[in-house]
Amino acid sequence: MPMRASPLRQRLLGNPVSRTLLSLWAWLMIGVVVIVWVPLTFIVFVFTAPFDKGRYRAGWMFRRLCVVHTWLNPLWSFRTSGLEVKDPRRPYVVVANHESFADMLLISHLPWEMKWLAKETWFKFPLVGWLMVMAGDIKIIRGNKQSIITAMKGCHDRLDKKVSVMLFPEGTRTRDGEMGEFKDGAFRLAIETGCPILPLVVNGTREAIRPGDWRWNVTNAEVRVLQPIETTGLTKDSVGELRDRVRTIIADELAVMRA
User: Fold this and answer.
1) Exposure check for the chain: N or C terminus, fewer CB within 10 A?
2) Per-position DSSP letters for 105-158, written without gaps between them
3) 59-102: per-residue pLDDT in tens?
4) What is the C-alpha to C-alpha distance for residues 76 and 5, in angstroms, rounded to an integer?
């Protein structure tokens, strides 16, 4: 089913006055929650660092911030569906289509922790960047070969410590609503480590906030967890085939969700 708000909800919340007032509220709340969450996450980070080398608990704490913000934003309704991951400490290379920056908030509703491969820009934001560092997320500078190598080493490290990593194989969010081509990195990583690919399908976040507009929109969004794809026995020669297979699986499910 397409992720559309009901006509009544759209009329009540989506008119210009309501949207402006509720957006002000949502921005205020995210500011307050982030300020509160930094010391809370720092406490978790400090007390768990000696035994939690993968920063699983600090990362989980940061992801709860994303969930709380969504709860406090009356314009948004997010939900999860699909496969229930039985063992949250089995490491996966998690991949998803990329619709908007709100994807991070949506995917954080999944009940297990994963480390995000994210642009360096995010780490430069005060407070949010600090939270990402404490959470053990991995920064990458797009187009910088050394940064890419370092980021992949970081992904290997997290997977070795039994923590999943989350990548967007398109490399950037869609500009026209159509899913872009997938790059090889996530699939090479999965084959090198022997970790399964866990595909996610994101639908509905593209309209959450439009470029050039600070106001949030009435948004229903969903992330669906698909069956994992094992990579044991695959070689580097299988990267392209695996990439195309996963892209087709995600694209087909996205078409079903949008139908």
Assistant:
1) C
2) HHHTTSSS-EEEEEEHHHHTSTTHHHHHHHHT-EEE-TT-HHHHHHHHHHHHHH
3) 999 999 999 989 999 899 999 999 999 898 999 999 999 999 89
4) 9
Burial tier of 55 (Cβ tally within 10 Å: 0-12, 13-18, 19+): buried
What's the whole-model pTM score? 0.92
Q: Is 6 exposed, middle or buried (0-12, 13-18, 19+ CB in 10 A)?
A: exposed
Residue among 153, 226, 140, 250 at smallest CA distance from 192: 153
CATH topology of domain 7-258: Glycerol-3-phosphate (1)-acyltransferase (3.40.1130)
Structure tokens at 186: 């996530």
Q: How far is Cα 203 from Cα 177, in angstroms, rounded to an integer?
A: 10
Tokens of 29: 């709340």
Q: How confident is the model at residue 9 (pLDDT cuts 50, 70, 90)?
A: low
